[in-house]
Fold:
Amino acid sequence: MKTLVIAEHNGEKLSAATLSVIDAAKKLGRDIDLLVASNSSSNVLEVAKAVEGVSTVLDFSHEKFENEIAEDIAACVVSVKDSYDFFLASSSTSGKNNLPRAAALLDIQQISEVTEILDDKTFKKPIYAGSCIATVQSTQEKNALTIRTTSFEKASASGGTASVEKKDVPDSGSRKSGFVKNELTVSDRPELTAADIVVSGGRGMQNGENFALLEAVATKLNAAVGASRAAVDSGFVPNDYQVGQTGKSVAPNLYIAVGISGAIQHLAGMKDSKTIVAINKDEEAPIFKVADYGLVADLFEALPDLESKL
Ligand code: FAD
Structure:
């Protein structure tokens, strides 16, 4: 039996998250196949077959994958289910959408947000917003895992010599949803979950206009901009900026938290960052407990200062 990894890509490149899922898959000790659902004009197959550690790229190409929806991806997974005993995806928005549907169709219970693979039945995963780490043991013959990608390295994008196997795209049956439109935040900045440096703002920023102060610092550092849920819920920035338990998980080399108190749900999404810097005017703010460097200061003075020094 083998491991099937569901690839995420933009038609040109695989996501960094997919490379981390492949690294996790290696720990299961089986051959790894990569399911690539793409529209026919995509170049991504060439990129996919060069990834080190991949045996076969399953080429599900069809016009409908210009915009993927979970029903179509899950149908592809189910169509090849007999060859695999592991089905892996990243715990990104896309993986959280696709894999549960496939797992339900396979009648298996998904194990989510795996941070460590101890053996092919035993996995570690955070629970209670990361306050505890559970070690879970599966009794299932087949397993579906979403992978917390910040806990794994990235497989090398080159050096692989996978073969490509053309697959028939299955009919997803009478589906209840269809693609309507994509609304993407267009930004020149690095993607939040892949960035080397993240600068995040919280409720202390007071409003969306003040995020310009953060963005100026982020530009100097070539950083992504993130936010706490309070900042998102207050409408300062769009939802896809949110870092935390119900947002994105990030583990950059440097995370700068500005005007963020450090609630456990925020920490759940960023505490694995290599170096954490906090700027907060309240010296009792819990963020300072996880920060490597803390600056007790008014952010409206500290941010312009920092920008000019950078
Ligand atoms: P606050 O807690 O209000 O903190 C603002 C901070 O800014 C304070 O520490 C204050 O001292 C500081 N400040 C104010 N003015 C200045 C200034 N001028 N200069 C410097 N510092 C200043 N939260 C997340 O972030 N991500 C999640 O994914 C998430 N998921 C959640 C899921 C659930 C089920 C629940 C219940 C909550 C979740 N939350 C999440 C919300 C979380 O509990 C907190 O409410 C939220 O993180 C607080 O955001 P904040 O730190 O920006 O705001």
Summary: The pocket of flavin-adenine dinucleotide is lined by residues 202-204, 228-231, 242, 244-247, 259-261, 263, 265-266, 269, 280-282, 285, 298-300 (CB under 6 Å).
